[in-house]
Design a protein that fits this description.
five-stranded antiparallel sheet; alpha+beta; 7 strands; Four Helix Bundle (Hemerythrin (Met), subunit A)
């Protein structure tokens, strides 16, 4: 059978993408100590090409097999036929290179804002662009609400932007950033005829959300700590 690896692609961000194996290199063999067990524990490296995007990764595996993992190729067959006998379902992935990027966020965000932003980043890393755009909008909405009076709670982000304009708390450029994040989020959630289909389309909203959260929460907390003041209540470490 043709063997493939199911991995998260670090290039196109598709989760559990099939990588068709091009080469297998066995790096170590440990025979079983039991006379009744003819299998051995093998560690091996495999290079493969992502089905959706065609780019390559290398992964290391460890598992018990009856024979060394190998790949037989026929003329014109790029992926070959895998010779892999034994308990291949129990394979352990030891490493992957390049590895998928882990979602990260600006420092010192309050937990509700952090959750919304990380959810957006997870969707972004998996190529779920509409969900990511909606998540960045939610994170920004939660970030600006504490800047306003109690009457802002429960209002949509659009009216909150109008209230922010009257406070002069943020420069006009940042208000424009918030509008872009809002509009992209609304488009992702409500447009009937079109979806975001590339990271380039939502990259501005992602960048603006990160910068705004850094300005509102990361930088003030860094200043507080540099001055020896206690951390702001509700911020993350």
């Amino acid at each position: 059978m043709s063997l493939f690896m199911s991995l998260d692609c670090p290039h196109c961000m598709v989760s559990h993408s099939p990588f068709y194996i091009h080469k297998i290199v066995v790096t170590s063999t440990t025979p079983s100590r039991s006379d009744r067990d003819r299998s051995s524990t093998y560690t091996f490296d495999a290079s493969g090409v992502c089905g959706p995007c065609g780019r390559m990764v290398v992964a290391g595996f460890k598992g018990r097999c009856l024979a060394p993992p190998a790949l037989e190729k026929s003329a014109g067959d790029l992926s070959g036929t895998a010779k892999f006998q034994g308990h291949h379902a129990d394979l352990e992935i030891v490493f992957q290179a390049p590895s998928p990027a882990k979602p990260s966020a600006p420092e010192h965000l309050p937990p509700p804002i952090l959750r919304a932003y990380l959810d957006a980043e997870k969707a972004y890393s998996q190529g779920i662009w509409n969900l990511a755009a909606g998540g960045y909008r939610k994170a920004v909405d939660r970030a600006v609400t504490p800047l306003l009076s109690e009457e802002a709670k429960g209002k949509m982000l659009g009216p909150k932007i109008g209230m922010l304009e009257k406070t002069n708390l943020l420069p006009p450029a940042m208000l424009d950033w918030i509008r872009i994040v809002k509009n992209d989020g609304n488009f992702a959630l409500h447009d009937d005829d079109h979806d975001f289909d590339s990271r380039e389309e939502i990259e501005p909203a992602r960048e603006f959300a990160f910068t705004l959260l850094t300005y509102l929460y990361t930088l003030p907390e860094k200043v507080r700590r540099a001055q020896g003041l206690p951390k702001e209540e509700g911020s993350t470490p």
